[in-house]
Design goal:
With 249 residues, the protein is α/β, with parallel strands linked by helices. The chain is built from eight helices and 15 strands. The strands form four sheets. The protein has a five-stranded parallel β-sheet with strand order 2-1-3-4-5, sandwiched between helices. A five-stranded antiparallel β-sheet has the order 10-9-8-12-11. It comes from Mariniphaga sediminis.
């Protein structure tokens, strides 16, 4: 491979960043184009510089490595580098090229870089990591949803979500004060949100249970839910069954 692998490091610990940089300087096929100490910086630099490869920590301040991936317009190859082994399966579900468990050796790092070089030769610099993200909900329920709105990143606690509406390839997330559009599927969110607190009432709607004020018959065998702020949402037959199951009526 003649061209160098343009690389960004996203790592909040300075010692870990410096160690990784010292190892990478010995890799003749790697060029470090930026380093970032948190996920917000990472999103900005990755989308601007469009690297071939990102070394990504998982547990970071502000947003996690997995949340960062959801916000990317550019789709680089990913090598996770983390001190936590419990995320390994999830990382490979996100189509990561490799998963380095700290502390790792220089030889182990070079092995990971070789994997990326092989991928680039066979697949090109574009990775399908961003598409993979939507297919795999977390092992635990979401406690927050991260949304990118132009140059701003919003972190929405799940307990502020009133309901979610499907809009083709996107969803609209409604809170008491605002609404946010995110590129996610309803299928993903239905699985990723705590089913004790959220219910799918229609192919177009997921509603927080405590937001429901009443359920009214709309037409024969047709219902609507009315939220506390008087918002009215359609209920499908399957949604009505879901409501009966969760509300025990």
């Amino acid at each position: 491979m003649s061209e160098k692998i343009r690389t960004i490091i996203v790592e909040d610990e300075e010692l870990a960043r410096n160690l990784l940089k010292s190892f990478l300087k010995e890799a003749e096929n790697v060029e470090i184009v930026a380093e970032c100490e948190n996920g917000f910086e990472g999103v900005k630099m990755i989308n601007e510089l469009k690297p071939d490869l990102v070394f990504l920590d998982i547990q970071m301040p502000k947003i996690t490595g997995f949340e960062l991936l959801e916000l990317l317009d550019h789709k680089p190859h990913i090598i996770f580098a983390t001190a936590y082994d419990q995320y390994a399966l999830k990382a490979f579900e996100y189509n990561a090229a490799d998963y380095l468990l700290k502390p790792y050796s220089k030889d182990r790092l070079m092995e990971a870089i070789d994997k990326v070089a092989e991928r680039i030769q066979t697949e090109g610099t574009h990775s399908d990591v961003a598409e993979k993200v939507s297919d795999y909900p977390r092992e635990e329920f979401l406690d927050r949803i991260v949304v990118k709105d132009r140059h701003k990143i919003h972190i929405i606690p799940v307990d502020q979500v009133r309901y979610i509406e499907s809009m083709d390839d996107y969803v609209m997330i409604y809170t008491p004060d605002s609404r946010y559009m995110k590129q996610k599927t309803m299928k993903y969110l239905e699985k990723a949100l705590d089913h004790r607190n959220f219910v799918r009432i229609h192919r177009s709607y997921i509603v927080k249970v405590e937001e429901i004020n009443e359920i009214q018959q709309y037409e024969k065998e047709s219902y609507i839910v009315i939220l506390h702020d008087k918002t009215k949402l359609k209920v499908s037959k399957t949604g009505y069954k879901n409501l009966k199951d969760i509300l025990n009526f």
